[in-house]
């Protein structure tokens, strides 16, 4: 049996613990916070409960596999409810679209809302995206990134032409999407990885394909329950989860890990360390070697991902609110009039930082408004999570989100902008809580509050994301800052990749890899 320490109880760390404990390893999870979940957090107050991170589950088969391979099936411990309307979109010209949650219904809905032929345009795009998915899923999303895998793609002209890695996501979509509203819809998916669609690689076309092919799902009672269920499974398999333990150093014995040290001075020996901490934190703070310093310098050359500015709105009196004219929807997206101006504000003019980042004046607004009686104190109430893309917290070179009054002024402007776009809740707010990128940094230890670690900006960005197996023997990375990327499904896949690399305890005996 190998002793394994997992740093961080985010979904990637918890899924790693469940898998590795089920394989017979002695696993201890150390979480610096007093609660588990990482970015899959929750806030409860006055009868209102908010998810503070992801608001839907995509690629549900990833979680089904996790539970099937570690014990009882997912459906025996947790309900996933499919959304019949995945999202209500309001475009810059005022048109609205209720995007069906079933892919076969999408073309008809597009034609009805946006005009004849738009359904065919999107279907053609999804078909090309499916080809990219078929090529990338196994070797890139479900396997460690390797030079051999990259070479295999490059050696196959047909696959290379389909993936078109030299194109941006926006450029990939332009072949099929003549309607500017469909192009805005595609641009949105770059933000799933914290990226700029003008620079994000064409491979991100797999994101809308996977979301629409497998559907959008919600966990009644809140998505935090998914993290809790994974933690319960890890414990059932024998893992120990300790909260309030701040790991300050990964210990080495020569070229291999030997354990970790905590802020209290405790030293915990381990054959293997799996870190769910941000890669920047691992290289810059937890490892102390020349190799770590080189890795930190290399990592610093990558663009950090965007962050988010969040309003948690406790609402009353929604029964007769005018904006509910189309019925309740779990998700709304109110698109910006100028999407390029939004990305310029976050990443710099043209993505080249010719001037520093700044809060977006008229951003796209994302609203998660679950119709779930378990998260509100009574009928007519709503626990709304409102998010806009935002530049990271960077007082020295960008935005200081701790500047007095900035968060309050920006929050008020967003409520006014929501009203302008047809969702006026200003008279229904019982209370509001604001979370800035600086808050995200404090709560999750993500540098600058960058939600996904690094952005997928540039054709090579996906291949430059920190690998799961690190040069330090016995050290592995999981979570959104490592391969294959951010978002609940991908961080869960990172755990599967690492567990496969480490292998069963009986195969390894007491010798670490």
UniProtKB/TrEMBL annotation:
PANTHER family in the record: PHYTOENE DESATURASE
Signal peptide: none
Keywords (A to Z) from UniProt: Carotenoid biosynthesis, Oxidoreductase
Record-given protein name: Phytoene desaturase
SUPFAM superfamilies per record: FAD/NAD(P)-binding domain
Recorded superkingdom: Bacteria
Similarity remark: Belongs to the carotenoid/retinoid oxidoreductase family.
Occurrences of domain Amine oxidase (ranges): 12-291
An individual GO BP term: carotenoid biosynthetic process
């Amino acid at each position: 049996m190998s002793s394994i320490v997992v740093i961080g109880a985010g979904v990637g760390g918890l899924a790693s613990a469940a898998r590795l404990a089920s394989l017979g390893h002695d696993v201890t999870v150390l979480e610096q916070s007093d609660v588990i979940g990482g970015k899959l957090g929750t806030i409860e107050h006055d009868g209102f409960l908010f998810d503070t991170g992801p608001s839907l589950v995509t690629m549900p088969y990833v979680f089904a596999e996790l539970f099937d391979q570690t014990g009882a099936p997912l459906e025996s411990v947790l309900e996933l409810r499919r959304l019949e309307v995945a999202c209500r979109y309001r475009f810059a010209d005022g048109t609205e679209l209720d995007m069906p949650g079933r892919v076969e219904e999408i073309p008809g809905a597009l034609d009805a809302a946006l005009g004849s032929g738009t359904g065919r345009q999107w279907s053609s795009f999804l078909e090309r995206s499916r080809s990219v998915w078929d090529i990338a899923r196994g070797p890139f999303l479900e396997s460690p990134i390797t030079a051999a895998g990259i070479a295999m793609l490059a050696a196959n002209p047909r696959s290379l032409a389909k993936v078109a890695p030299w194109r941006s996501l926006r450029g990939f979509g332009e072949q099929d999407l003549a309607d500017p509203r469909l192009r805005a819809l595609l641009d949105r998916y770059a933000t799933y990885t914290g990226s700029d669609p003008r620079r994000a690689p064409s491979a991100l076309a797999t994101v809308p394909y996977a979301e629409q092919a497998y559907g959008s799902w919600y966990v009644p009672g809140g998505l935090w329950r998914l993290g809790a269920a994974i933690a319960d499974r890890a414990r059932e398999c024998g893992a120990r989860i300790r909260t309030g333990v701040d790991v300050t150093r990964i210990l080495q014995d020569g070229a291999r890990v030997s354990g970790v040290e905590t802020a209290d001075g405790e030293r915990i020996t381990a054959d293997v360390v799996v870190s769910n901490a941000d890669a920047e934190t691992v290289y810059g703070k937890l490892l102390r070697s020349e190799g770590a310093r080189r890795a930190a310098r290399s990592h610093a050359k990558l663009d950090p991902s965007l962050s988010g500015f969040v309003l948690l709105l406790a609402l009353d009196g929604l029964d007769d609110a005018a904006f509910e004219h189309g019925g309740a929807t779990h998700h709304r997206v109110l698109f910006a009039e100028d999407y390029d101006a939004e990305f310029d504000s976050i990443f710099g003019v043209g993505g080249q930082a010719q001037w520093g980042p700044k809060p977006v004046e008229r951003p796209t607004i994302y609203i998660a408004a679950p119709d779930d009686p378990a998260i509100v104190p009574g009928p007519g109430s709503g626990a709304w999570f409102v998010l806009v893309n935002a530049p990271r917290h960077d007082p020295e070179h960008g935005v200081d989100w701790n500047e007095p009054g900035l968060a309050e002024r920006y929050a008020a402007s967003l409520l006014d902008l929501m009203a302008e776009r047809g969702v006026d809740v200003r008279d229904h707010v019982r209370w509001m809580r604001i979370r800035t990128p600086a808050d995200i940094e404090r709560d999750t230890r993500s540098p600058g509050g960058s939600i996904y670690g690094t952005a997928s900006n540039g054709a090579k960005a996906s291949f430059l994301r920190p690998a799961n197996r690190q040069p330090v023997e016995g050290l592995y990375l999981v979570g959104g800052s490592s391969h294959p990327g951010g978002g609940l499904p991908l961080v869960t896949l990172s755990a599967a990749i690492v567990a496969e690399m480490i292998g069963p305890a009986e195969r390894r005996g007491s010798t670490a890899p």
